Amino acid sequence: MPIDTRCPVCFRFDEDGGHIFLKCKKVRELWRTSMLEHIRTKLLDCPDSKKVLEEIFKLEPGECLKVCFLMWLWWNERNKANNGDQIRSIGEVSSFAEYHLFNCMKDKTQEKEKSNRKMQKWKPPPEGNLKINIDGAFIEASKIGGWGFTLRNDQGVLLAAGAGKLKHVSDTLHAEALALELATNIAIKMGCQQVIFETDSMMLKQAITSTEYDLSKLGSLFQDVKFQMRVGLIVVSFEHCNRV
């Protein structure tokens, strides 16, 4: 049975692994377009396929992934050419490699951030301080929400906690602010003096620690909470924590 061993892309030389991925005229152009010619040159010096893989896996993660995507995409294009189909341009293949690399790195970053959030643990306040963790919830459809807080000392001992429903809530920030107001009132009644408030709402922290939101629709609420803190508490600070 006659077998054509020529490269189905360039039709110039007998095809083997080295030719497909490193030596074919078209694949050389692909490596150059993808700014990876220095890696292709290094791989050409490898004596066998095992050494090629070892060199690829030694690359820094971004380059390693890009090379793998590039070779995978080129293998698909080679198979299309072998079946007599039209292959994509070098620019298109290079762009697809960049696209897959971007999505892969983004997924890895999100997974890392998610893992870091899961590993995050509650930290006790400095000696002599109390920490109040607050949270608010909001349901858009019904304009109702909920609030909750916990109060712990520097040993992590729970001193107080509370939760309840909220009516006529405008948005999530509104619910968070009401939760802070209610927790502040309880802390003042309990005679707390040095308090650290911890919230997962960066907007709430900004609203309470600056005047940036004082002219907003919730400005009067923010000003009232800040006034209560100045009058009823001695030392107050705010910390932001990621939602787990």
UniProtKB/TrEMBL annotation:
Ranges where the RNase H type-1 domain occurs: 133-243
One Pfam family cited in the UniProt record for this chain: RVT_3
Superkingdom to which the source organism belongs: Eukaryota
Residues spanning the signal sequence: none
CDD domains, alphabetized: RNase_H_like
Molecular function GO labels: nucleic acid binding; RNA-DNA hybrid ribonuclease activity
Protein's recorded name: RNase H type-1 domain-containing protein
Species of provenance: Triticum turgidum subsp. durum (Durum wheat)
Highest classification ranks of the organism: Eukaryota, Viridiplantae, Streptophyta, Embryophyta, Tracheophyta
